[in-house]
From TrEMBL:
This is Universal stress protein. InterPro entries: Rossmann-like_a/b/a_fold, UspA. Residues 57-135 form the UspA domain. Pfam families: Usp (PF00582). Belongs to the universal stress protein A family. Transmembrane segments: none annotated.
């Protein structure tokens, strides 16, 4: 195991996540992923663990050591671990035993191009780990400033945490705008449009639902610490459409730098429903995606 003494970001006291784990493979994108994840750890003021599930060889070790010498923040609190076994089980166990609160995985945007950790493995990890997951589709060797974060405003007990993390991340990265998207399904209208009268009723009900959902989101925002809201513009956007698909499409259209979503609920009926919502996003990632889970 390689170990570097902790030199955390002196510019920020905010820690959106305290311990990051990056599961890496020796792929062509390894160098740029390492550059991006070490930068993220620096801005998040976090400990960083790099984990390779596979055989440790002198050649592989030399390669990773060489890459770490060339990163922007080479002395940030960093460890390198080597483990063998089933990738999903090994990473799930590592996230638990190493007290990881954010698992970072490199990803390619479209499902038919997924490699190694992306695709089935990433989906399994997203549902099985006890921490948040960041899927990166556009790592950069040189920092590209983030401008816009989109976060879901679902009527769900875990939404306040997702919003808090979105504001914390926006603060440390200097993001200019946060858009909170509330997806309202057509089923909530309970009206079949058949003529001008039902069309008018549907329009009125849409407006009522929109106002109700925006009021609920504003109540959540009120509980976000003021210092996290002072330097970012906040917009609430209601969208009528298929849950999961609509917010992913919106994030892509507005060219968001990050989409923040609630994690799948692991119990009962919600566990069977949520995959249908998140599946649209995981199968065709619109941008970098952060799936927030409260680590217990």
């Amino acid at each position: 195991m390689l170990y570097y003494a902790p030199i955390l970001n002196p510019l920020s006291k905010i820690q959106p996540f305290k311990t990051l784990l990056f599961g890496f493979a020796f792929s062509p994108s390894l160098e740029v992923n390492i550059m991006e994840v070490t930068r993220i750890a620096y801005y998040f003021n976090a400990r960083l663990i790099l984990l390779h599930v596979g055989e440790k060889t002198a050649e592989k070790e030399a390669q990773i050591e060489g890459l770490l010498r060339s990163v922007e923040y080479p002395e940030n609190h960093l460890e390198v671990h080597w483990m063998e076994g089933n990738p999903v089980k090994t990473i799930v166990n590592a996230c638990s035993t190493l007290e990881v609160d954010l698992l970072v995985l490199g990803a390619l945007q479209h499902e038919n191009m997924y490699q190694f950790y992306v695709g089935t493995i990433a989906r399994n990890l997203t549902r099985k780990v006890n921490c948040s997951v960041l899927l990166m589709i556009k790592p950069s060797a040189i920092r590209v400033a983030s401008q816009h974060v989109v976060v879901n405003g679902f009527d769900d007990p875990s939404t306040p945490l997702a919003l808090l993390k979105a504001f914390e991340i926006s603060n440390v990265l200097g993001v200019q705008q946060i858009t909170i998207v509330e997806e309202i399904t057509e089923k909530e209208l309970h009206i079949t449009v058949e003529d001008d009268e039902t069309l008018e009723k549907a329009a009125l009900l849409k407006e009522q639902l929109k106002q109700k959902e925006e009021a609920r989101v504003r109540r959540i925002i009120e509980n976000i610490p003021d210092h996290l809201k002072s330097n970012v513009a906040v917009k609430i956007q209601s969208i009528f459409g298929k849950r999961g698909y609509s917010i992913g499409h919106y994030a892509e259209v507005v060219r968001a730098d990050l989409l923040v979503m609630n994690a799948p609920n692991k119990s009962g009926l919600l566990d069977r429903i949520f995959p249908h919502d998140i599946e649209y996003i995981l199968s065709d990632l619109p941008t970098d995606v952060l799936i927030v889970r409260d680590r217990k």
